[in-house]
What does this fold into?
Amino acid sequence: MTSARLMLGNGLAKDLAADTARRSEDFHQRAGRRPCLATVLVGDDPASVTYVRMKQNRCRQAGIESRHVALPDTTSTEELVAALTALSEDPEVDGILLQHPVPAQIDERAAFEAIAAGKDVDGVTMHSFAAMAFGLPGYDSCTPGGIMRLLDHHGVDPAGRHAVVIGRSPILGKPVAMLLLARDATVTVCHSKTQDLPAIVRTADIVVAAVGRPEFVRGDWLKPGAVVVDAGYNEGNVGDVAFDEAMSRADLVTPVPGGVGPMTISVLLDQTVRAAFEHAGLG
Amino acid sequence: MTSARLMLGNGLAKDLAADTARRSEDFHQRAGRRPCLATVLVGDDPASVTYVRMKQNRCRQAGIESRHVALPDTTSTEELVAALTALSEDPEVDGILLQHPVPAQIDERAAFEAIAAGKDVDGVTMHSFAAMAFGLPGYDSCTPGGIMRLLDHHGVDPAGRHAVVIGRSPILGKPVAMLLLARDATVTVCHSKTQDLPAIVRTADIVVAAVGRPEFVRGDWLKPGAVVVDAGYNEGNVGDVAFDEAMSRADLVTPVPGGVGPMTISVLLDQTVRAAFEHAGLG
It folds into this structure.
C-alpha cells in the first residue's frame, strides 16, 4: 500500500517566524521602536490563558513587543468595545488580537468590529473577511492564511481544482473557502446540514476539514491522490481526519499536531510586522 | 415530455413594490418626510442612464423621493468619494445607489466603500457582503436578495440541498453563494477556471447561473427536477441558460426576462424604506 506524503507545518512555520524576526529587527532599526501586538483576554479560561501566553512568547522571540490587556470575566460588551477602540486609536499599537471565545454576555461580533481594519492582524473583522473574498489588500484570518501558505509551500496550486471545505465558521471555514476561490479553485462549502457528505468529499482534489469532530472524515471518503488539510484539533491531539486511513489513500496529508497548527501563530506575527511597516509608512 | 414550472418574478416583484409603497406612506405619515434614495451616475453611458431612470420612476411610484447626482465622465476617484461621503453624512438621504460600472479611471471599490453601511441599500460594500456571509443584519445585494425571495416564494427551501452557483462577481455570484450557505444549502461556486463544469452542475439541486454568456448552461447539464435560477441578461433578451432545454428537464425555471430581473429594483426600494425607518428610529 502506498503512503501519502506529509504536509508538515513545523519547519515552514519556523522559517516564516525567522523571516518575521528579521523584518521585525529591520523595522526596529528604521522606526526606532519595535512592532507591537496588543493581546486582549477577557476572563481566565485556562486554555485561553495558555494560548495568549504562547502568542506573547512567540512575539518576544520575533522581537515584537506585546502589550497585554486583561479584563475580568464580568466585562460587558461596551467595556470590551471601549478597550478595543482605545487600542485601535493608540499609535503605538500595530496589531490587536482579541482572544476568543469571549464570555457569553459579550457580543463577540461587536467586539471584533471595534478592531480597526488596519490593526486586524488576526483577520476577524467583517472588513478582513470581505478583503479575503474580494482579493483586496488586508489581513487573512490566521489559520486560513496558514493553510494557503502550507499548500503553496508543498506545490499545491488550487487553480481549477475542486476544493471541499467542511465547516463554515466565520474565522475558518468561510474565509478558507474565499481564499481558495480567490486562487481559482472550484469551492464547495459543506456543513452539518449537508446531505451525503462522503459522496461530496469523494469529488474533492483538496479537502479542508474544519469541523472540530475527532476523526470525522474517514479514509474511504477521500479520492485517491487527494490533498488533505486537517484544521481540526480535538482532545487527545486528534484531528478531524482519520489520519492513518487518509495516509493510505491521499497524496498529501497534514498531521495533527504539526500540520496546520504551527502556521497560525506564525501568520499572526508576520501580519503584525506587516501592519507595523504600514502604520509607519515604511511599507 | 414533461415541462418545468416557471418561476416568475413579475407578480412577486409587483407585490413587494406594493408593500413597499404602503410602508413608504406609513413612514411619510410618521416621519413627516418621504424615504429618500440618492442615485449617483458618473458619465452618460446610455444603458446606465436608462437603468437610473427606471429606478427613479420606480421610486416615484413607491412614494420614495429620489435625489439624483450626475457627475461628468471625467470624475476622479477622489471627487466621487467626496460626493458619496457627503450623501453618507446627509441626514435627509436614507439610501445611496452608485450606478455601476463606473468609468475606468475610478477605483470602484474605493467609491463603494464611501457609502455608509447603513445607507448601502444596493448591498455593494464590504460590510454588506460580510453581513450576508455571517447572517448579520444588513442590506443584501439586490439581485441575490431577489433570488432568495423568489426561491422562498416558490417554496424552495435551500437547506441541505446542493446549490451550484456559476459566477463569482462581488455583487452576484459571491453574495448569492453566501446567502444560500446562510440558509443551510451546501454551496459550490464555479467560474471560468472550473474543470468539467457540466459534471458539477449535474449534481446540483439548485443552479444559479450568473456568468453573462447567452445560453451557456445547457439542458443536459441539469439534474432532472433541478431548480434553475437564471440571473443572466444578455443581448437579445437571452439568459445564461438554454431556456427550452431547461424547461424540458428541470422542475422550476426562471424565464428571461420576467424571472430574476424584476426582483432587483423591488428589493432596492424595499431596502430603501427599511433604511428610512431605521434612520428615523421608527424601526
Observations:
- The two ends of chain B are 50 Å apart (CA to CA).
